[in-house]
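Internal tracking record. Fields below are filled automatically when a chain is submitted to the structure queue. Please do not edit lines marked as system-generated. If the sequence contains nonstandard residues, flag them in the REMARKS field before resubmitting.
Queue: standard
Priority: normal
Entity type: single polypeptide chain
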Amino acid sequence: MSAHPVSLPLLGSVVLCTLALAGCGGDGGSASASTPAAHPQPMDLTIAHINDSHSNLDSSTRTLSLLQPNGVRTDVEVDAGGFPRVTAAIKAIRASNDNVIALHAGDALTGTLYFNRAGSPGEADAALMNTVCFDAFTLGNHEFDKGDSGLKTFIDLLHAGQCKTPVLSANVKFGASSALAQPGTRNYVLPSTILNRGGHKIGVVGLTVAGKTKESSSPDPETTFENEAVAAQRAIDELKQKGVNKIVVLSHIGYEADKALIAQLSGVDVVVGGDSHTLTGPASMTTYKAGTPAGDYPVLLPNKDGKNACLVQANEYTKVVGELKVSFDAAGDVTACSGTPHVTVSPNYKRVLVVDDAGKPVLDGKNNKTWRTATAEDIASFNQDLTAAGFLRQIEPDAQALQVLQPFKDKVDTFKAQIVATAPQEICSRRVPGGVDSADYSRSSAECNAIGDVSLHGGDIQQLVAQSYLDVANQDYGGADMTLQSGGSVRIPLKGDVTAANVIEVLPFGNMLWRLEITGAEAKAMIEDGLDATFKAGGSTGPYPYTAGLRFDVDQFASKGNRASNLQVFDQASKAWGPLDANKTYKLFVLSFNATGGDGYTTLASIPKERRLDIGVLDADVFQTWIDRIPEKDANGRSVIRKLPLELYSTQFFKMP
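SYSTEM-GENERATED OUTPUT FOLLOWS
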């Protein structure tokens, strides 16, 4: 659970490299950067951390549930998150504590227009990261989305200023022809670094999720990823040989995988994680509508030696800044860990939902919710409730970071002006169906989870994207019988006004669509590939298959090759569903990424060249075309996006515990 909240004073611009002495990186693994204390001493270390920022540099409006003066909770909208608030929070943590290190646990890149519409890919992300001066950054799978050359360019941008943040991954092995294996770039990515605080050495080891990066991103063909536990133990042993007895693993392999990893590692003290976008913190986060935590912050687990190891993760998209406090004894063993996942919000309140004494929204004459401005009494009550929460932190964005962000924001804003559609009801996002304890339950909003359809059939937005490919293919590109879309490649839900920029944010990875000719047997194997990549030991939520024109039932507990049943194909001529014919040839519209084996779709990778056709159209452009063609329009002539009929959902039945 969260410890007593730590005050975050608001600071002006601070030159971070002078604020924390060695706070601008480590010594690249050298043990001689500074002299440790003459006699071993206990130490208290504070770790400020984020993960999976995914180019979410702007703040956004967030709805919290706060207590009014009458004791009734209501929805209150606030400005929240954004990288300038990350910068402000980490500056404040550094100013309020001794022995602070700041870490980023990977996937800084891709996810919004800031990544590829505001300069060179990753330029804006590097610039904002350099307003923090992270002491270490581990490579996530999405750092490889533009290949090894793209990663090199990003590291060049990250190291262009004075921070020179060490970039870590102990388990990546760059191929001989990689841009990161040349004489001048071989030290761009290190297995570990050594930081020095108060005469103590802290070793930081980086890890990148192995299978997912190779399957789901675009590293060079010769670049490989070693087993995470094997590589981590080797790096830890090397640090131990250099006299380092405090080891932090900066891990981008996922929350559950981190739990398993700790049990396999000797000498690990702390794991700061990423990849699974997991929110950790007190159960009261749900009461405040701050999210549904998957576990406490932090979790204390035994490592392979039976000694304490602390595990944390800080959600996603610059929403949360973790502040972990770790106490070490003189031998370098963990004696205690506590901390706070700071959900950063503005000190100002935008508007307040009008509710009755039972907490139900008061509707106007048109059956719409009514809102009002906050009174002085409201503000006092809200502030008191925020303080009581312990994890909600009112903090203004850092002024220096806002200045750095502005030119990039100006470029992005040109893509955000045009409203192209409206979604009256949230088009929910969920990668994998399932109930409360399932792998991806916390991704959906509370409203979507309350409706329940996403638990039975999966994400509405994922399904809608798959349907858009089918409809546009049949109108413009020679036809298709079915489509495939990995759940994890669809990044955001839609609700309210939808801009052209939002459409790109749904599908931000710039994949081209191909048409493959596959047999019914290959279609069945394709679905089984996606289900196995999701539900196998060490699987991930991203590969879960969404299809249009093809539907099926899923038993997540069945053996490999037997998880999908009752496969049916929609016949365009008869407008009826019928059984999938194993011997018939079907036309599949699919992303180039999946067609070449991405996300574990090995069946598609084996389809011979003569049965492949590069259509040459961008996924987001197809989706935009489909939106433009929606017959229903609002009063302003904009398309109205609604959920599809349930009969069109690819997952018709999902077996739950």
